Amino acid sequence: MDPNAERPTVIIRHCDSYDVETIRRIVREGLEELGLRPTGKTLLKPNLVAAGDLFEHAHTRVEFTEGVLLALRDRDQGSVTELAVGERCGITVPTRMSYEAAHYNPMLKKLDVRRYCFEEVPQVEIPLTHPGRLRDYLFTPEPVAQADFFVNCPKFKAHPWTTVTFSMKNYIGIQDDRHRLIDHDHRLNEKIADLQYIVQPQFIAIDAIIAGEGRMLTPIPFAMNLIIMGNNQPAFDAVCCAIIGVDPHDVDHIALASKRGFGPIDLPAITIKGDVSLDDARKRAHGFQVGLIRVEKYFEGTAITAYAGPPPEGEKTDYCWGGCPGAIEEAIEILRLFDKECDAKMPRMHVVFGNYKGDIDARPGEKVVFIGDCAEWKGKIGNELVQIRSVYKDRATKDPHHAKHDDIFAKMLSVSTKLGTSRGSHVRIEGCPVSVAEQVLALVSLGGLKNPYFDGKNMLDFNRAYFAWRATQVTQRMRGVPYQKLGPTQRGEGMPVIGGGSEK
Length: 504
Ligand code: SF4
Description:
The protein is of the alpha/beta class. The protein has two domains: 9-291, Rossmann fold (3-Layer(aba) Sandwich), CATH 3.40.50.11440; 295-397 and 405-454, no CATH class. It has helices at 20-33, 62-75, 95-101, 104-111, 142-145, 177-180, 188-195, 233-243, 252-259, 278-284, 295-298, 324-338, 342-345, 408-420, 436-447, 456-479; strands at 9-14, 40-46, 80-87, 114-117, 123-127, 137-141, 149-153, 155-159, 163-165, 203-213, 220-230, 271-273, 304-308, 349-353, 367-371, 377-381, 384-388, 426-429, 484-488. α1 crosses α2 (62-75), α2 runs parallel beside α4 and α12 (324-338) crosses α15. The chain binds iron/sulfur cluster (SF4).
């Protein structure tokens, strides 16, 4: 065992392929080097935000997770009481469908590992007391709150809202839909930093064998042939940033978590080891593109012209990086995958976000779509004087206790009714945020595109998984299992944990 293992340590290892036994050996050696053994309820959280043939590089590959689970078994000396995998994939899609599409189910069955779909289990309240928090409590799925040994297994990807999605950003998947959308706006980085108080992982292993460049749901594959492991979340993310040439101080959720004492992000304070040096890892990542592109630029040269003004709380930012503008970028990329004619079919249209003050250059017949509660504009569209007022609600009015799940079929009905019956020059879509799913549905409706939810086999799988999820909730309610269980756990209290370590 390394005597420095308590110091935040990041191990960078070469890995040729998605061979399960190779991954198992590398990860077992990483656990040994960090002096870690799983114990009690051991929960592994992958990133399964989107899965299936069209989303091959968006998620933690099944071979990777299998290798990590086997390595955890190798290191268990009989004290693990439950070995489980838990996730909430991209909202509206049932997580059970993502497990299926990512080929996790046969693997979990073979290894006799329990599977949790986080939107189907009780949600537990975690109190927050730290200065600068967005709210006084958060909800998280019960298996997360009860984990004795938490293993974070993200995918190494760029992200259009938060620059990167490594270890800390993977925590967006430890909330169910209702709670995940709260504060998923221009304060998203602060939300991610607040989520760190729920739990800190004892062990992190990121799938960087084939990383994802440029976007998060439909990333471009970028072979790096790396497995990176660590025992401290900010230190881990800082090294991942360093590999792609990003200063971790410039990634707000990483910098904020470090400032709050979760761990260092300056490289001299981190032990970096492994069979690939940081310099060599940087060479492998040369040219890796992150996804931070403003929406106006993103749509240049397409049928869509985008305009963005600042969101509310202007002292924080002049652009909503965590909400509606980024969601439309992901939405159009999904539609391009499902409908090759997407760009050709799309009529000229204009999308407007935030408090936009400039002109909108819409010609007769071109629709103007104001997206989000904070959209605000006054001016002429053709000869018509138009005034759009902000309907943004202060975040203090959004109580997570009363957050409701927005059903996808209800969303489909509401978006298609609204857009289908809109005859004028403009239309307003409300929400904060207007999610990727809603913006997919809006563009489908406006552009006459193929609806991914009705795409052949996808539709059958979706409906099967959706109704199974709903049936589970109904059964739980009938049995008296609380879907939302109130009351604090031990997790949200106390000071941040620096470094890892359970049993040595
Ligand atoms: S409505 Fe959309 S753009 Fe406005 S603050 Fe909310 S998430 Fe951001």
